[in-house]
Amino acid sequence: MTTTLAPDRRPEEPAPVPGSALRTALPRAALRLHRRALVVGASLTGLFALVLLGALLWRSLYGPADVAACRSGEGCPGLNSYGTAHSVFWSLLNQSQNVLLLVPLVVAAYAAGPLTARERELGTHHLLWTQSAASPVRWLRSTLALASVAVAVTGVLLVMVYRTALAPVEGAWGVGGWVPGGYAASGPVLVAYCLLGLAFGVCAGTLIGRALPAVFAGVAGTGLSLVVGVAVRPWLWPVSTVAVPFTRDRSAWPASGTDWPEDADIRGQWLVTGDGARIDLESCYATPGGIAGCGSRAGAESWLVEFHPFSHRLPVMLVETGLVLLLAVLAVGAAFLVLRRRTP
User: Fold this and answer.
1) How far apart are CA 324 and CA 188, in angstroms?
2) Does the keyword Membrane apply (predicted)?
3) Which pLDDT belongs to residue 130?
4) How many other CB atoms are there within 10 angstroms of residue 50's CB atom?
5) Which phi and psi angles does 267 have, rounded to 5°?
6) pTM for this structure?
7) pLDDT at 320 (0 to 100)
């Protein structure tokens, strides 16, 4: 009688990992690997909130009566204190718009370097894939999912902090509104660009495989997207128009606050001739007689202004957010496609 024994598994062959255990092990491994970046990001977000909201609280210590007295200069012993508080708050609020525009670039740099390209450049990605018994695609999918959640949550918190600080001075010149930084930080656009930076960084790190060139490519791509977004933003939603008859009397020309809202974003102003031709105002600045003489010589009959009122800001934001997220999905898809082709 003979007995057939199953061959023993070779010592070097890794034991199969159950699917449920693998799904939980990969996020934990990615979390341990990038925990320092998460801590630094959370700390910087908390510091941003503490500084900006602290300045808002300092400014709010003065009531309307105190502010009126300070402005009149009568009965206000804390005039200098109020002026200092207001100046600090206004400066921080103004600069925070520029700082928040840099967040997508920072995300792109980290995603291109430490998140993807560094492991490939050092060769440690093979060890990670072997120890976790996960395919490269699964490893990238788990890492990208964790990073996307962290980036989205951070972006939402930054937007909430900025909007809270902006609320008392909403509509003031130079902050919020259609200002590029204030526009992005006031809605979902900032979160979308942060996710785009993550996608571009992952795509650059996967394609290039070297940390420094990948960081440059990811940051350059994200920065270019921000610039293009500002350029095409006025064309994402139908504009409102106002036409005023052209005369040599400057008082009859259209003016902000009279013919269109002061908080509007102007897409363009032209002089229009009788046959419908548009004359760009920039071409009139260097001519004798200025705009009035230029319009008279060209036979202009009306002044045309195209603008976006403040009520258009939310629809423009939603359209831009959708386009940016679509671009992010395409970048991530390209990264996975390249990874599948380069690994067995």
Assistant:
1) 11
2) yes
3) 55
4) 11
5) -85, -30
6) 0.84
7) 97
Q: Which helix (H) or strand (E) holds 134?
A: none
- Encoding tokens for residue 163? 């909007």
Reading the block at residue 277, the tokens are 């031709």
What confidence score (pLDDT) does residue 51 get? 95
Q: Taking a C-beta distance cutoff of 8 angstroms, is the pair 301, 274 a contact?
A: yes
Low-confidence ranges of the chain (pLDDT < 70): 1-27, 63-80, 121-134, 248-252, 343-344
Q: State residue 221's pLDDT score.
A: 96
Per the CB < 8 A criterion, the answer to whether 49 and 157 are in contact is: yes
Give residue 138's pLDDT.
Answer: 80
Identify the CA nearest to 306 among candidates 250, 244, 228. 244
pLDDT at 14: 47
What's the Rg (C-alpha) of the chain? 28
Rounded to 5 degrees, what angle do the CA atoms 160, 167, 78 make?
120
Sequence ranges of the domains in the chain = 26-235+314-342, 240-309
Identify the sign of the CA torsion 33, 35, 40, 44: positive
Residue 28: other Cβ atoms inside 10 A: 12
Burial class of residue 235, CB neighbours in 10 A (0-12, 13-18, 19+): exposed
Under a CB-based contact definition with an 8 Å cutoff, are residues 341 and 315 in contact?
Answer: no
CA–CA distances in Å: residue 68 to residues 71, 88, 290:
5, 19, 43
